[in-house]
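Reading a protein record of the kind used here takes only a little practice. The record below shows the convention in full.

——
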Amino acid sequence: MEITSSSSDKLNALLSITRLNRPIGLYLLLWPTLWSLWLAADGLPDWHLIIIFCLGVTVMRSAGCVINDIADRHFDGHVKRTQSRPLVTGELTLKEAIGCFVALCTIALVLVLFTNQLTILLSFGALALAICYPFMKRYTHFPQIVLGAAFSWSIPMAYTAQTGELNHAIWLLFLANLTWTVAYDTAYAMVDRDDDLKIGVKSTAILFGKADKLMIGLLQIITLALLAGVGYLFQRGWLFFIGIGLMAGLFIYQQYLIKDRDRSQCFKAFLNNHWAGMFVFVGIVCDSAVS
């Protein structure tokens, strides 16, 4: 009975450190990847690539969470939102966490081997970004930019996996997703701002200060403009732009949520971005279906 209970506790700890029990980060990584796949294919992508990238996004997002917890294990106990993480409570050891990270990266490597040479080469960039992001908050107020690059790197990978080449227009989608990521992760960082100031961790929410809402709004406008540019370059139709319009509507709602900088409302605004990404994806799929 003790063995069963111990195994269950360890499983729960692994679910916690890989965030498989909290899928919002997975959604925010998955939607832009699917945008890219559908744009690359100009319709339905190859089924094996849909499976590879859905699984790959899942394992690499979890790997990123694990390396983040390893890097922050001495900080997390001082932050209200993170003080119950497994490396803080002792539910997992550092050795077990490192083993989990290596296992997840190995699975991701095996998956990418079923694509092509260019996509395999690009995957090393994804790994480098995933590893360096958690350490950036110690040295710069712009860790969200590194996170944005990490969350956007699957875009050129998905495109090359489908087409075998890199199109310059796909980098506009990369930039759109990067600015979107900085916007929603700044709202997320507003939740932890008071704790981060106490322990000396940097973020865009701290850098922007009282201009935080304005900067998020500007980043959201830039995101919409860049996505409109993507639609123009890929010759998308009106359904694509309806998807962007729905995203714009959600951005207005998010500005309402963060107006008083209340922690719970800022977190709610962050979570709302899942729907923004999904609406853009639905717009791309519907537009591809009728064009």
Observations:
- The radius of gyration is 19 Å.
- The chain has 13 helices and no strands.
- The CA atoms of residues 128 and 150 lie 9 Å apart.
- Residues 170-199 form the longest helix (30 residues).
